Amino acid sequence: MDTLQDRIFQALADVKDPEIPDVSLIEMGMVHRVLVNDHDVTVQLMPTFVGCPALELIKKQTMDRLQQIDKKNRIHVEFVFDPPWTSDRITPDGHQKLKQFGIAPPQKSLQQLPSCPYCNQEDGEILNLFGPTACRAIYYCRGCKQPFEGMKVV
Amino acid sequence: MADDKLLLGHRDSEWLGCCPDIEGDVAFSSIAQDEVGHATFYYQLLHQLGEDDPDRLAFGRDASKWRNCMLVERENDDWTYSITRHLFFDQFDQIRLQAMCTSSYEPLQHGVKKMIREEYYHLLHMKTWFKQLGRAGGVATQKLQQAIEKLWPDVNGMFSFAGIEEDLLRFELIQLTPTEMRVKWEAEMKALFQQANMSWPGEFPQLKHDGRKGEHSAALKTLLLTMGEVYQSEPSAKW
């Protein structure tokens, strides 16, 4: 028999990043912990960026999903900055799915450039440190000669 | 800190669709989003400590109540001015954030540690452009020189703490005095000026008006009218 904690973590795997719908909050490494206390369930999430505009949506989607599996307890979703979310929290599954979605997963250091998510060539260049969302940058692949997005190292 | 960030973020957002190239446009929009996000973080902390609602602080406050430094309220002027202004501020901000990484107020400390990772990219972007403009020669370097001269009288204003520095230090909210911050800023910037082949403009002029004491230019009033236009049309509306 699964515990409530187990069921919550399974449900959180269904909540996707609104800007990258292939990747769940767990795969993004955004779930800090789940606290169960009496009739209160508190999910602590770590924002990827302080000003991420998707936070309210993520909160709502998390509440909605958890209320489906747990009708007895009060559900709370809060954002915490301690510990800070860092790009190395993205799980191996998360890396795989980012790549499938066409976004290069983050490297270990800022000096390393990501390999192209389309053709795997490593010889890329930075086009723009800033991309369509706060957490992404834009690169250019000299192999397949097209731009691609990559997750920033933070 | 909240006021600095919100105004700078708003000025950044004014560049949307107007930058010299599309990369610059994307950069300023992304940076604007970060800065406004940081401002929101600070306003929420203030609200938890008993200050007014964040929306009212941002959109419903008279210019004399704003505590930002003058540098961030100035009009954007040309792109070179905006980049140089951002560089000057970001370098100051990095020093100020580092000085709060061991702050006795934990919620502040946690937020600061997160923001510092994001600000890294802003500073890198501004430094890169400063060096490129400085080394380019011709119109680019001329404009950079003009931007530096126009900004120089506002530099000192970033380091004003309007008389509360002793309390901030005594309660260990921040670890550096304004003078220590300015010394660090000067060292970092002197090295960058050298790399960009730009000459150091010399001493910082004395402040005529101190934004941190609520002394502001007409530019702030215009900015607040623009920024608060929708909110002011119906302050009781729920969003």
Automatic annotation (TrEMBL), chain A:
Residues 6-76 form the MIP18 family-like domain. Pfam families: FeS_assembly_P, Zn_ribbon_PaaD. Residues 114-152 form the PaaD zinc beta ribbon domain. InterPro entries: Fe-S_Maturation_MIP18, FSCA_dom_sf, MIP18-like, PaaD-like, Zn_ribbon_PaaD. SUPFAM superfamilies: Fe-S cluster assembly (FSCA) domain-like. Gene3D superfamilies: Fe-S cluster assembly (FSCA). This is Phenylacetate-CoA oxygenase subunit PaaJ. It comes from Polycladospora coralii. The gene is paaJ.
UniProtKB/TrEMBL annotation, chain B:
InterPro entries: Aromatic_CoA_ox/epox, Ferritin-like, Ferritin-like_SF, PaaA_PaaC, PaaC. Gene3D superfamilies: 1.20.1260.10. One of its GO terms (cellular component) is cytosol. Pfam families: PaaA_PaaC. It comes from the Bacteria. Transmembrane segments: none annotated. Signal peptide: none annotated. One of its GO terms (biological process) is phenylacetate catabolic process. NCBIfam families: PA_CoA_Oxy3. This is Phenylacetate-CoA oxygenase subunit PaaC. It comes from Polycladospora coralii. The gene is paaC.
